[in-house]
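User: Just a sanity check before I run the rest of the batch. Below are the structure tokens for the first item. I only need the designed sequence back.
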């Protein structure tokens, strides 16, 4: 079994807490450990916030997030101008902004960027899950 959420959202700051809360509720219902949920919430927040800030001129973006066995896979897809991840420089120590990609890299077990140039970008984040004792998730994922 798998649990998935796919949403097309307006490229607006109000979309970020909406998708974050929806997916956290799903992970909480499955019994994913709080620390793992926190990591996923922060990765998702950073990926979506980057779209809101940088993915012009598009008016919307998509988030596809799912749990497959003990793996969480999140794809944040924008229809903006695209970007070239190897050319993104790291933010200086103490910087107030510009650390989103660094944070995602630190928290994700795997991260991939696909630049579709004028058709936008895809950020794919993966995180291995751990479940609380007696959680529903492992039972449902085994079926």
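Assistant: Here's the designed sequence for the first item:
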């Amino acid at each position: 079994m798998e649990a998935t959420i796919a949403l097309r959202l307006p490229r607006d700051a109000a979309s970020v807490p909406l998708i974050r809360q929806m997916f956290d509720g799903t992970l909480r219902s499955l019994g994913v450990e709080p620390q793992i949920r926190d990591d996923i919430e922060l990765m998702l927040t950073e990926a979506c916030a980057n779209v809101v800030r940088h993915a012009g001129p598009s008016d919307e973006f998509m988030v596809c997030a799912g749990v497959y066995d003990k793996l969480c896979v999140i794809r944040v897809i924008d229809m903006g101008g695209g970007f070239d991840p190897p050319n993104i420089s790291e933010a200086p120590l103490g910087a107030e902004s510009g650390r989103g990609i660094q944070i995602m890299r630190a928290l994700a077990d795997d991260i991939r960027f696909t630049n579709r140039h004028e058709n936008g970008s895809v950020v794919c984040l993966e995180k291995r899950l751990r479940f609380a004792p007696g959680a529903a998730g492992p039972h449902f994922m085994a079926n």
